Amino acid sequence: MAEDVLQVENVAKRFGPVTALRDVNLHLGKGEVLGLLGDNGAGKSTLIKIISGFQKPDEGRLLLRGEETELKSVDHARSLGIDCVYQDLALVNELSVTSNMFLRREHVHKPFPILKRRAMARDTRKALDQIGINLPRIDVPVARLSGGQRQAIAVARTVTSDADIILLDEPLAAMGAKEGAMILDLVARLRAEGRVSIIMIAHNYVHVLEACDRVNLIQDGEITFDKPTADTSVEELNEIVVEEYRRARVAAVGKDDPAGR
Fold it and tell me: Which CATH number do you get for residue 72?
């Protein structure tokens, strides 16, 4: 589609005997928020890592703004406008909040490689304020912070970058209700602005239907459902998942007892 900023076509990924992705086709429109649902092990994080340049697909291709693109690394993807909040957050425990906010994206004086520490501290505080997270100190190691605070740092780092494609791999996972609501409000603001396109992995169907324009369901390494959130419901999604469980159990029984006994 002409308005798509990202297209994933026939992507497959294997890890030894395990097939993580089979034949994935996905598209992301300009300014769109796409919710990606699926059980643990369905292939969600593997797909995100491929789109972010962290892993390479075994088959298939990615088109970025209509051009076929081979992502060589995370830094290469970031230079092309793709940034990601990974499930493991990609934070360095021993470094401060500010250092983690600018990890591999430090601001330096030119021509000398001297860090702009005051500017980075100011921008860190501004980024955290933007999503409503109040940290008394930003010069402490992130190892001292709670899971929700660490998650907030990873989210703030990504959404305040220059990226126009943002990947959020379970951004609410370690959040309490208050902090999670702040992140959802932030996604809503970005959605309203239309400046960035977002893929958000989540487990909560209600959050996806409220925060996203469209929902994809990935099951056993394949996209099996693609529909605007306005045209679907929690009940429909539950029915699809329950039916998949039923088919998987029938298949498992058949393997254990081919005769059907």
Answer: 3.40.50.300
Q: How confident is the model at residue 245 (pLDDT cuts 50, 70, 90)?
A: confident
Q: What is the mean pLDDT of residues 114-128?
A: 91
* Cβ atoms within 10 Å, residue 222: 16
Q: Rounded mean pLDDT of the chain?
A: 90
Secondary structure of residue 43 in the 3-state scheme: coil
Q: 197-231 pLDDT, tens per residue?
A: 999 998 889 999 999 999 999 998 999 999 999 99
Does residue 261 lie within any of the structural domains?
A: no
Residue 70 lies in a domain: yes
Looking at the structure of the chain, the number of domains it has is 1
DSSP 3-state of 167 = strand
